[in-house]
Each structure stands twice: as C-alpha cells, then as structure tokens.
Specification:
Blueprint: H1 3-17, E1 36-39, H2 46-57, E2 60-65, H3 71-75, E3 78-85, E4 88-95, H4 99-111, E5 116-121, H5 131-140, E6 142-143, E7 146-147, E8 152-158, H6 172-175, E9 179-182, H7 187-197, H8 201-209, E10 216-220, E11 223-227, H9 229-245, H10 251-255, H11 261-281, H12 283-286, H13 293-300, H14 304-345, H15 348-364, H16 370-397, H17 402-442, H18 446-457, H19 459-467, H20 471-480, H21 484-504
Parallel strand pairs: 1-8, 1-9, 2-5, 5-8
Antiparallel strand pairs: 3-4, 6-7, 10-11
Helix pairs in contact: 1-2, 8-14, 11-14, 13-17, 14-15, 14-16, 14-17, 14-18, 14-19, 15-16
C-alpha cells in the first residue's frame, strides 16, 4: 500500500490500542497490542509519518535508528546481584536499564505524556550480536529486565532485502506476533505531502514531467545509484536557502542528493530552463494579469515540456497565495475562538494565560510542528497587543469596564477580518488571472486539465476553493474533470510523456 494508506492504518491501530474501558483499563491488553512493522524501501517518509501521527494523536514519540546501537546500549550492562532462594544465597545476573527504555521514561518525565510511540528504524538490519535481543523485544516488548511501559506502542520499520544486504529475515514465530504493513513508493501520494511540506516548485514541475525519476534504486557497473523521496525533500530545503543566498546548485551539488547521475544531470539542466522560462514569460506579471499577445503566441507553439513547465510554475506561484490564505484564515478562526472565550470569562488576561500555558505545554511535549508553533505564537502576540493597546487607552481616555473593553477588542479583531478579506481578494485575483492566461493560451486542453489536477492535489487550494467561489474553476472543472473528455486528455498526456521518455533513451 502507499504511505498515505499506511499512515491511516497506523492511526487506526493506535486509536484502538489506546482505547480504555470505564475502569481505565486498555480494551486490548498490552500483550495483545502487536508491534507494528513497516516494511518498505528507504527514503519514502516512514520517519516523517511517525512524527505526524504522534502530533495528531497528542502522544509522545521516541525514535531510534537501531543499527546505531550495540547490545550493551540496547539491553543494558550486566551486573551481579546476591539473592536468596530457599535459604541459599546465589549470584544472579541482572541488567542496568536499557538506554532506549530509559529514553521512554525521560520523555514521559519531560513532557508529562504517559502514552506514546517507540519507533525503531532499520529493525531488520541490526548486528549479529543484537539480533536475538531484537527478536525478544518484538515478541515480549522487553530489553533485558525492563519492559516498555504500558500505554506505549511499538512501531518498527525495516527495508526489504533487495535494498539492503545486511537485512535479517524474521522467523515465523516473530512475524506471527507483529502487525505487518508493506509500503511502496507512490508519486501521486507524495505530491500531496509535497504541497503541504512546501517542496520547491521547480522539483514538482520537473517530476510532473518525469514521474519515473521520483524514486529509483538501481545496481549498475558503477555501484548502486538511487533517488529517493528523502533526497528530493532535502534538496528542496537546500535550493530554497541557496536562492536566498544568491547561490546556484549545479549538477555536482544536485548529485549529492540525487545519487543517480542521469537524473541529477537532467534535473540540473531543467533548473536552468525553469529560470529561463520564468524570465521569458514573466511569471510574476502573469498572476497580476499582465501579459502580451506575443507571450501567449509563444506559449501556444512551445514544446510539450515548456508548456507543462509553465503550468507547473504558475501552480507553484499560486501555492504561495493559497498558503498565505490558509495561515490568515486559521489565525482569524483561532482569534475568534479566543474572543468567544473572552466574552464568557469577561477576562482577556485569563484567556491569554490559558492559551500561553497550553502553548508551552504542547511545545514541551513536542506536539507542535514548526508551522503550528509559529501560528500559535502569532495568535498569542495578537491577543497580547489587544491587552497592551487597551491599557494605553484606559490611561489616556479613562475608559473602563468590561463592556468598553470587549467593544475595543472586537474593534481590533475587525482589523484582522479585513486583513483576511484582503488576502482572499489577492488570492482570488491571482487565481483568476492565471485561469484567464491559460484560457487564452490553451482553452479546454490537456494543459488546463493538468492545472486543475494540481488544484485538486494541493490541500491549501482545496480549502480555498471550498470556502470561496471562483467562476473559472467551476467552469473548467465541469468541462474537463467530470466528463469523458478528461480520460481522453489524460491518456493523451501519458502517451506524450512516454514518447518523450523514448526519445531520451
């Protein structure tokens, strides 16, 4: 299955494992909570989904790459303890606490969370000395003498043997105690994640043209050559910073992340073309509705790659508008909830304290992503500004009383709603200008179908279109994506892509 389906399977399992009866006992006892084993190729995002799942469930996460551990660090160090059995004193070997088990308890102490996920990556690539210990752990949830605390779910990940020579096969006894989920790479699913993660538009534009280059693992005369989802994501982060610094990533730099020379060279060449297209067509001007007949004519007769690159570039540019809208919309919604709370409590300072305490608790528990933390800070800062401005007003004008204060807060909040409306207007203008441009250039075509498909993939654009009416979207959505003509267009696109691939080989 693809990783999106696997994520849902894990979420469902965790929800079931953590369900309790009226007495506070887990409905599925610990010894029946099978460890979850994710098996799939390297670099497809197994670690990332565990972070997302932990945050979504509001539980802790302790993550280890098990190949970095020795038997001593995993099990603990042996020591001798004297014990008496039937009036006979015996020397017994016991073990200090495992570093891994200790990390679980430390996480519980630090975050205050009593439930969590213990994630062990590369579980089937451990050393020979550690292999029996790992089998015992999966079967009994114990390292040495210490057991994983109740309420902690074990998730392990491994690579199939074709990707790693050091893989050790699990026996039937072990496999019969696991909940195994096999994962395969899937570009269409990853693309949804890519929009959410803010993957650089040049990468998405390239992969739309070369889907076969998304994931590759090959054995060649020059050794293993590979391209993974992790490689694309890490390269994306580098490209963004390089762009800020005015640096250029050439094919040598690209190859450091995409360790397949053919793919690295082709992508590096595409980046140069991408920048040329941006300059030639005036991307920034198009979303403002500024373009010439010459530009339209040039695009109309451009090559397949060039036309679809422009569509990808425009989609990438619109992503910035959609993301800005979602951030502003979410900020407005949270401020509105805070205001409702203020109205009930009649105390702005109390609401600020509660939100601050909740924010700090979530941060301490690692339950906030970078973007979520930024948004929560922005809401807190806005509420604190309301408080400061009201204090200044009372000092100058002498206003007092809760009714006057709440009226002032509502007045300040109205500025936030106006800001949200401004963002909506800017986003809608950019979207309609893009539709107009593509309409004049292509009409109802494969390019327009591709553009609509991008809108349907991006979670931010879906949210915007669900909450704001765009006549162009409904016009072409009905004309291209909900009739038999869509199938014809998509088939034509696939055939064109295959013909290009054949010409390159």
């Amino acid at each position: 299955m693809h990783i999106k389906r696997a994520k849902q399977e894990i979420l469902d399992s965790i929800e079931a494992y953590l369900q309790k009866d009226e007495d506070g006992h887990y409905l599925i006892p610990s010894f029946r909570q099978r460890p979850i084993l994710l098996m799939g190729p390297p670099g497809i995002g197994k670690t990332q989904i565990m972070e997302q799942i932990a945050r979504k469930c509001g539980i802790a996460l302790v993550s280890y790459t098990i190949t970095h551990h020795t038997r001593q660090s995993a099990v603990g160090l042996p020591f001798i303890r004297e014990k008496v059995y039937q009036d006979r004193t015996c020397s017994v070997t016991e073990y200090t606490m495992s570093e891994i088990i200790a990390s679980v308890y430390e996480k519980m102490e630090r975050t205050g969370l009593k439930e969590g996920i213990l994630f062990l990556d590369e579980i089937n690539c451990v050393s020979e000395t550690l292999a029996p210990t790992m089998l015992q752990f999966l079967q009994c949830k114990m390292f040495g003498n210490q057991k994983v605390p109740e309420g902690w779910i074990i998730v392990a990940a491994g690579n199939p043997p074709e990707y790693n020579k050091s893989v050790r096969e699990f026996d039937i006894v072990t496999l019969d105690r696991l909940k195994r989920i096999d994962i395969e790479e899937n570009y269409n699913v990853w693309r949804e994640y890519a929009y959410e993660a803010g993957i650089d538009p040049v990468i998405l534009a390239y992969l739309e043209l070369r889907k076969s280059h998304f994931y590759r693992v090959e054995n060649t005369v020059d050794g293993k050559q590979f391209v993974t989802a992790r490689g694309w994501e890490d390269l994306s982060e580098l490209l963004k910073v390089y762009r800020m610094l005015g640096k250029k990533a050439d094919r040598e730099v690209v190859h450091q992340y995409l360790q397949n020379w053919e793919v690295a060279k082709e992508f590096a060449n595409y980046m140069e073309l991408y920048e040329k297209y941006k300059k030639d067509y005036g991307l920034e001007k198009i979303v403002q509705g500024v373009y010439s007949k010459e530009t339209l004519e040039k695009l109309r007769f451009a090559s397949f790659d060039e036309r679809f690159s422009i569509v990808g570039m425009l989609s990438g540019k619109l992503c910035e508008f959609f993301r800005a809208y979602c951030v502003e919309d979410e900020k407005t919604a949270r401020l509105y909830d805070a205001l409702k709370n203020c109205k009930e409590k009649k105390d702005l300072e109390a609401v600020i304290r509660e939100r601050r305490e909740d924010y700090l608790a979530k941060k301490r528990a690692d339950l906030l992503s970078g973007e979520a933390e930024k948004l929560e800070r922005a809401v807190l800062e806005e509420l604190e500004s309301y408080s400061r401005q009201w204090q200044l007003r009372t000092e100058k004008a002498g206003d007092s009383g809760w009714e006057a204060e709440f009226a002032f807060i509502k007045e300040r909040f109205s500025l936030q709603t106006k800001q949200r409306e401004n963002v909506i207007d800017k986003t809608m203008d950019a979207l309609e200008h893009t539709f107009c441009f593509l309409e004049e250039a292509f009409g109802e075509s494969q390019e327009m179908a591709a553009f609509l498909a991008e809108l349907h993939t991006n979670g931010d654009s879906i949210r915007f279109l669900r909450e704001n009416d765009c006549p162009y979207y409904y016009k072409y959505n009905k004309g291209l994506l909900f009739d038999e003509r869509q199938k014809e267009i998509l088939t034509e696109m696939e055939n064109l892509e295959k013909s290009i691939d054949r010409s390159l080989n």
